[in-house]
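Why should sequence recovery work at all? Because a backbone constrains its sequence more than one might expect. Tight turns favour small or flexible residues, buried strands favour hydrophobic ones, and helices have their own preferences. The token representation captures these environments compactly. In the example below, the structure is given first.
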């Protein structure tokens, strides 16, 4: 089945073709609920930038992403956040995996937002512009074949930047790593503590790999594909839905991509298992 692909001239825009996947055997009620919730969250961020300066203001009281600590400068230089250049707002995260490729979720680049100018920002821990930040234009997006936006199955994408970033070290991908329940991992992101509650600084925290059954139960047994995802959770630690694209790290290697989560400490995070997509990722580098 063909890969969904987007190409565009380096004008900060992208056009995403419709996916050729058509999974008709999913539960209609559960699937429609998940996709509507995710689209509403993304749309709420866009509306914040367009219509209300005060709607998405930062607050010291809510600046508590995933229960973690503020990351040190240079600790995660490969962390990328995507900005809508029309609204100026962050909408997703990712990781630099080569000088001009970023790994993220397919959900971050939906087909219902064509021709939106997008930039990728990295080498910074702050959403406030500083002298160290690196900015590139998004010119191409390749989503995994058979990505299902209703369930989140195969929720992975490779983004191409308009020019290489040679002085920022990419993240190391843990293709050959063994991952077991009980492993202590890390989660990193700017993200949200609520649908419109944006934090200012990159945060990181420890999180524990959990049995996949925990995530399946938390999401009403939606079919994420048992071989394609990792489940992680920890008391007081979590990742909101708009943290999509943030990495799950094990011993400094990225093993997962945050795909689905509910805001709130202790809620499990469904992460795409990058090991299951090694061949596909390598083909798209």
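From this structural description, the recovered sequence reads:
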């Amino acid at each position: 089945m063909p890969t969904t692909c987007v190409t565009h001239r380096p004008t900060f825009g992208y056009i995403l073709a419709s996916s050729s996947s058509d999974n008709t055997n999913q539960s209609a009620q559960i699937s429609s609920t998940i996709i509507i919730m995710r689209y509403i969250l993304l749309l709420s961020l866009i509306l914040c930038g367009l219509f209300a300066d005060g709607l998405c203001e930062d607050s010291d009281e809510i600046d508590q992403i995933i229960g973690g600590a503020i990351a040190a400068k240079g600790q995660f230089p490969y962390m990328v956040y995507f900005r809508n250049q029309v609204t100026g707002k962050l909408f997703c995260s990712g990781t630099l995996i080569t000088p001009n490729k970023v790994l993220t979720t397919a959900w971050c680049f939906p087909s219902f937002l064509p021709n939106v100018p997008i930039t990728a920002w990295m080498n910074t821990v702050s959403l406030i512009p500083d002298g160290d930040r690196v900015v590139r234009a998004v010119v191409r997006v390749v989503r995994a074949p058979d990505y299902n936006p209703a369930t989140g199955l195969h929720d992975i994408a490779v983004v191409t930047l308009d020019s290489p970033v040679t002085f920022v070290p990419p993240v190391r991908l843990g293709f050959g790593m063994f991952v077991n329940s009980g492993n202590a991992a890390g989660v990193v992101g700017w993200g949200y503590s609520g649908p419109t509650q944006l934090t200012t600084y990159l945060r990181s925290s420890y999180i524990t790999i959990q049995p996949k059954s925990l995530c399946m139960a938390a999401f009403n047994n939606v079919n994420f594909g048992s071989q394609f995802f990792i489940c992680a959770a920890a008391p007081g630690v979590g990742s909101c839905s708009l943290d999509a694209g943030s990495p799950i790290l094990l011993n400094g290697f990225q093993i997962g991509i945050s795909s689905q989560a509910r805001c709130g400490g202790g809620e499990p995070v469904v992460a795409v298992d990058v090991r299951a997509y090694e061949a596909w990722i390598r083909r798209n580098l």
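A few observations help interpret the result. The first strand starts at residue 4 and ends at 7.
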